[in-house]
Amino acid sequence: MPVLVVCVGLTVGHSSQAVIHGLTFPGAAISTVKLSIQHAHFLQSTEKWEYYDSICSAAIVGLKPLTLLTAAHCLKEVRLTGPKDLPILSIAQPELLGIEEIKLSQAFYRSFEAVSEDLTQDVAVLVFDAKVQSAIQPLPIRLDDQLPEVLMICGYGRGYGEADTRHPRCGERKPVRDLSDFYQVLPKTYRDMDEMLHLQAQTQFLYTQELVHAEKALLAVNRLNEADQYDHTVPMPTVGDSGGPWLVINAKGQYELLAITSLVERFYNPSAHWPFFQKQVPLSEYPYVAYGLRLSHPEVLGFLQYAQHSGADIRFTSAPLFPYAGRP
User: Fold this and answer.
1) Strands 141-142 and 32-43
2) What mean pLDDT comes out for the span 21-39?
3) How far is residue 274's CA from residue 139's CA, in Å, rounded to a whole number?
4) How confident is the model at residue 286 (pLDDT cuts 50, 70, 90)?
5) Which of 252, 249, 256, 241 is closest to 291 using CA atoms?
6) Considering all CA atoms of the chain, what is the largest pairwise distance in Å, rounded to the nearest integer?
7) What are phi and psi of 230, to 5 degrees?
8) Cα separation, 142 vs 146, whole angstroms
9) pTM recorded for the entire structure
10) Exposed/middle/buried for residue 70 (C-beta within 10 Å: 0-12, 13-18, 19+)
11) What's the pLDDT score for residue 77?
12) Higher-pLDDT residue of 10, 240
């Protein structure tokens, strides 16, 4: 399952678990689908191809034609087919959403190499010929730089011990207010417990910021509870949730798409002084930060407008938000 993961001692790479720990929603209600993607990796040692599949999430942004947004890193090493070299992928269980006769017709995305160097490139637009029988409401993309008070993050990830579900899970989260303040990720109490590990984690965090190459490109949520304590049961997107929507609600009670899940950051080095490491929980349950790529960022917006002009069905809005989602 491809995902952008940054961790101490490692570069961007792979992981194998996903966490959302949220409530299950019907995919049609939040316009979110699961993608099944085929990949091919060439093994230099044996000079043979290795094939594997992965799962990512995607948001429905248009129906005429059916248009999805997902993370470009989901298409790392994707297998291609046909004269247009289109990715080999499918919408999982489309009958749950009333979608029939599906065929990918266009794909707009940049290479994984470009994405790994600049996270503003981590968006893909997929256009399908399809018949949509249900009353799915496509998600308009919000063109507003205001930071919402609350947002809802959705995806098809599955955490350790969680049963698989045919529907996405969602969780409401408060975004991190200031990405330059590392104490909003790991509060000072954790530095007092283990200053060296806290410093290592902060160094990694700053490296992630350099990957962005632009201000205001990312939204972030941490894994702290209301008491500012690290809590592995708090809803948190990771692998499998990549490309899933970060939603706000407008004044009419309709969902709007603010961002998509892009990068997950974990600090793996355990500490005997940090009490949460003493729990019997696998390391896959320890993401500290999850980032959503803002779709209103100028570089992202320019890419989406290009796809729109090339045939994708994408709508933009800046309508008033529901009161709780406004500027604090």
Assistant:
1) unpaired
2) 91
3) 41
4) low
5) 241
6) 59
7) -65, 130
8) 10
9) 0.88
10) buried
11) 96
12) 240
